[in-house]
Design brief:
The complex is a heterodimer of chains A (480) and B (204).
Chain A: H1 14-33, H2 40-57, E1 64-66, E2 71-73, H3 75-102, H4 108-124, H5 129-147, H6 154-185, H7 190-196, H8 204-220, H9 229-236, H10 239-264, H11 269-289, H12 297-318, H13 321-347, E3 349-350, E4 353-354, H14 364-367, H15 369-383, H16 389-403, H17 407-433, H18 445-460, H19 466-477
Antiparallel strand pairs in A: 1-2, 3-4
Helix pairs in contact in A: 1-2, 1-4, 2-3, 2-4, 3-4, 3-10, 3-13, 3-18, 3-19, 4-5, 4-10, 5-6, 5-10, 6-8, 6-9, 8-10, 8-11, 9-10, 9-12, 10-12, 10-13, 11-12, 11-17, 12-13, 12-16, 13-15, 13-16, 13-18, 13-19, 15-17, 15-18, 16-17
Chain B: H1 2-24, H2 28-48, H3 52-77, H4 81-84, H5 92-111, H6 135-143, H7 148-169, H8 181-185, H9 189-192
Helix pairs in contact in B: 1-2, 2-3
Classes of the chains: A mainly alpha (480), B mainly alpha (204).
Chain lengths: 480, 204
């Protein structure tokens, strides 16, 4: 009666195992060492992320399932995990100086970032609904805590509480949908669900379940109409935490959306395509129109990230290899643009005061020409002006949508990106044509490093796009 | 069979009724007590399905620990629930609308739910019959082997909960006198006792 005790293959899980073992060591180390000044824990976390990054790159490139089919590794998982690790590393590097100066530097911050990254990697590799949910909870619970990390600040605790309550609601919706899907397909495993839900025999129960799962996923990637938490949480959280939220979990969220819809529901593309098209249009429209009135840069970036998720979803709506390739390229470029923009927001500091408003940027071109140039590049790129990376990101998803006969969606995307260009370019105008204010303090090294790397990527991507495009293409093909 | 059905309807009715009372009762302590009643009846439903381990866990963990913790919290926090409920009714139209939509969806879903034998795939790990193996044993056999990935993931989630609670609430208190046992043991008669000669009628 004993089920055969075969040891599952651990090789494909090596990055996750490394991270989990590493984070346990960090917890013990931190607990015994106590709180010390210096960046010890942050450096350990960065080393851990770097080692894991290498381990991800060295994974075999064919599709491997392990852990009784709950965990899958393929090129898509490798690509998105690499992006996620970069985003998390960015979140740690940007926090180094900020946390110390704000007096909230504690060794738990890098630990929580690493734990949340493990959750993201589990989500990216999830091949059944249980693994998906567990990874998502690990990711979300750590995020709630780091949103409230500045615990003596009312705005930060409010952000954490809001995120927690709404996140719990969305987890509930996801679970409800998952239970309906399980009930109507008899399985939690994505390949089995895909083999059951084909053709015209799909019951309404599975469709309702699909809608609820889509709602839960849309919350995690902050797509309209489940975006309400985003501006408040982004504004209230400490700025490096906001940068982390805008970068790494978005990668995992889009990877999760892609894997769930492409891997588990390929047979009912028509049904979920409508949902994704609606979410995508609504996100793009809200992201561009609602951002116009914003004065606070962090809120502006929140709306910008809502809009960007909308553009990335265009690629998913196409449901083709080209579309998924577009999603992968879009997320990689979005990662660079977001980290770069937040590096500049973190550079706006005089003494102990952080400046977050658009007006505080006025005349930056005269006080800090290099900084202003970098921010201008980021904004031009976010607006989608041709030689920069952001243009190519949009180009690939729009092209995929047109190939998939979603011309209307692509046209709406172009129109909203023109609207969005207004507020991105207004920032450039404020920097270059308004009266200059006082100088800001010198940038700390970590912020400078992130800004330099992302600026170089954004400017040079147009010249050497081949490696990223090829990697994204391989990632997309592994899903089909 | 009829006895089984009768018990099913008994447990199910009480579960739903007490679930409703959890949100409807005015006194929060009564809400928690109704929650406990709902848990106990849900445990009864589990028992009828042969999931005795889940039933007992539900009673031990939820009734024994979680609900009692709730009671403590409700009693200690002294929240003015009457004030919280002020303006509660103004959300009734939209809340009611959402409720009706959800109800319609559920009816649609349940209405189409004809159990197609082909639809229920062969389960990943079938439940062994009660006379072969107890429920607990069967769960134990797969929990640490087939589903050990989920088990470990759940462990990490609990670790996050612990770290999170410490990060958000632990405050280093200054000026606290802690017991230092080695210091206490190192005291000798010379350091601890001082012998003074007290002059008569003068004191010290």
């Amino acid at each position: 009666m004993n089920p055969a005790l075969t040891i599952p293959a651990f090789g494909p899980m090596l990055p996750e195992i490394l991270m989990a073992a590493g984070v346990l060591v960090m917890v013990l180390f931190g607990a015994f060492r106590g709180e010390r000044p210096g960046y010890g824990m942050n450096i350990i976390a960065l080393a851990l992320l770097a080692v894991t990054f290498l381990a991800v790159l060295m994974l075999p490139s064919e599709r491997v399932e392990t852990m009784a089919g709950s965990f899958v590794v393929d090129d898509f998982a490798k690509f998105m995990k690499a992006l996620t690790l970069l985003g998390s590393a960015g979140g740690v590097i940007l926090s180094l100086d900020y946390m110390r100066r704000e007096g909230i530097s504690r060794f738990e911050y890098p630990i929580l970032i690493v734990l949340s990254t493990i959750g993201m990697m589990m989500v990216i590799s999830a091949n059944d609904l249980i693994a998906l949910y567990l990874g998502l909870e690990l990711l979300s619970l750590s995020s709630y805590v780091i949103a409230a990390f500045d615990r003596d600040n009312v705005r930060s605790t409010e952000a954490g509480l809001k995120y927690f309550v709404l996140g719990a609601l969305s987890s509930g919706m996801l679970l409800y949908g998952a239970s309906l899907i399980y009930g109507f397909t008899g399985s939690v495993s994505f390949p089995t669900i895909a083999s059951v839900l084909t053709g015209t025999t799909v019951g309404i129960g599975a469709i309702v379940g699909l809608v609820f799962v889509a709602a839960g996923i849309a919350f995690k990637i902050s797509a309209v109409p489940f975006h309400m938490w985003t501006p408040d949480v982004y504004e209230g959280s400490p700025t490096p935490v906001t940068a982390f939220f805008a970068a790494a979990p978005k990668m995992a969220g889009m990877a999760m959306a892609t894997r769930v819809f492409i891997d588990a529901f390929p047979g009912i593309l028509v049904q979920w395509q409508q949902i994704i098209v609606f979410i995508s249009i609504a996100s793009m429209a809200l992201g561009s129109f609602a951002a116009i009135g914003q004065r606070n840069l962090k809120r502006l970036m929140a709306y910008s990230s809502i809009g960007n998720v909308g553009y990335a979803l265009i690629g998913l709506a196409a449901g083709t290899p080209a579309g998924v390739q577009g999603v992968a390229i879009y997320m990689a470029i979005y990662l660079a643009m977001t980290l770069g923009s937040f590096a500049i927001i973190l550079a706006m500091r005089r003494g102990n005061v952080m400046y977050e408003s658009i007006d505080d940027l006025s005349g930056l071109a005269r006080t800090h020409p290099a900084l202003a140039f970098c921010l201008a590049m980021m904004m031009f790129s976010l607006a989608g002006i041709p030689p920069l990376a952001g243009f190519f990101a949009k180009f690939y998803v729009f092209a995929a949508a047109i190939e998939a006969n979603l011309v209307a969606l692509a046209v709406i995307g172009v129109v909203t990106s023109v609207v969005g260009a207004y507020y991105y370019l207004r920032i450039v105008k404020v920097m270059y044509f308004d009266a200059p204010g006082e100088r800001y303090d010198a940038m700390p090294f970590g912020v400078k490093f992130v800004l330099a790397v992302s600026s170089v990527f954004v400017v040079l991507f147009g010249i050497v796009p081949a490696p990223l495009v090829a990697a994204a293409g391989a990632a997309a093909r592994s899903l089909f | 069979m009829t006895v089984t059905a009768a018990f099913f309807y008994l447990f199910a009715t009480i579960t739903i009724a007490s679930g409703f009372m959890v949100i409807a009762s005015r006194n929060p302590v009564q809400s928690v007590l109704f929650l406990i009643l709902a848990f106990v009846n849900a445990a009864g439903l589990f028992l009828m399905m042969g999931a005795e381990f889940l039933a007992m866990i539900l009673v031990i963990v939820y009734v024994g620990a979680v609900a009692v913790l709730f009671l403590f919290v409700v009693m200690m926090l002294d929240v003015d629930f009457a004030a919280l409920r002020q303006g509660f009714l103004q959300y009734l139209p939209i809340g009611g609308l959402i409720g009706v939509i959800l109800l319609l969806e559920l009816i649609l879903v349940v209405g189409t739910y004809t159990i197609d034998p082909g639809l229920v795939r062969s389960p990943a790990v079938p439940i062994p019959a009660a006379d072969v193996m107890t429920n607990t044993e069967a769960l134990g056999q797969v929990l640490y082997t087939r589903y050990f990935y989920f088990f470990q993931a759940a462990g990490l989630i609990l670790l996050v909960a612990m770290i999170g609670a410490i990060v958000l609430t632990l405050r280093e208190r200054v000026g606290v006198r802690r017991q230092d046992i080695s210091k206490q043991n190192a005291r000798t008669q010379e350091t601890a006792v001082e012998v003074r000669k007290v002059p008569f009628r003068q004191g010290i």
